[in-house]
Design goal:
The protein is mainly β. It has one helix and seven strands, in the order αβββββββ. The model has no long low-confidence stretch (mean pLDDT 86).
């Protein structure tokens, strides 16, 4: 992949041609975004419970199963048969949203709960990708 470094600042009305300082870097999006390819899956965020950490409805989540979840990590978990994306509070056994409109969820002993992976990156698509459309 060829990378053209373009410093884009909010409020800019124009900028120099990217071709003026064209450079080719040996970088792929896989290398940039995925640390453990064999242990990584991609999910789509639904809802607005994680918006205050920058995860919005429709964002692409890169989830790494190799990473050990730590207190405060954004995780994807199976909670009573439903996949959820939440902040892990392992000390108080809570699943936290980053939107104050959502209450913390306590993980009880009788709950079915497993951490599927740690969200290491999220990506916002500004145009809908045909690969991500539901068929």
């Amino acid at each position: 992949m060829r990378v053209i470094p373009i410093p884009a600042h909010a409020g800019i009305t124009g900028f120099e041609s990217p071709a003026a300082e064209y450079s080719q870097l040996g970088l792929s999006l896989d290398d940039l975004l995925i640390e453990h390819p064999s242990a990584t899956f991609i999910g789509l965020a639904q809802g607005d419970s994680m918006q205050d950490v920058g995860i919005f409805d429709g964002d692409v989540l890169i989830v790494d199963r190799h990473e050990t979840a730590r207190n405060g990590d954004v995780i994807v978990a199976n909670f009573n048969g439903e996949f959820v994306c939440k902040i892990l509070d392992s000390q108080r056994r809570l699943l936290l949203s980053s939107n104050h409109q959502f209450q913390p969820v306590t993980i009880h002993e009788h709950d079915e709960f497993s951490i599927e992976g740690v969200v290491t990156r999220s990506i916002r698509c500004h145009r809908q990708s045909p690969l991500l459309c539901e068929h």
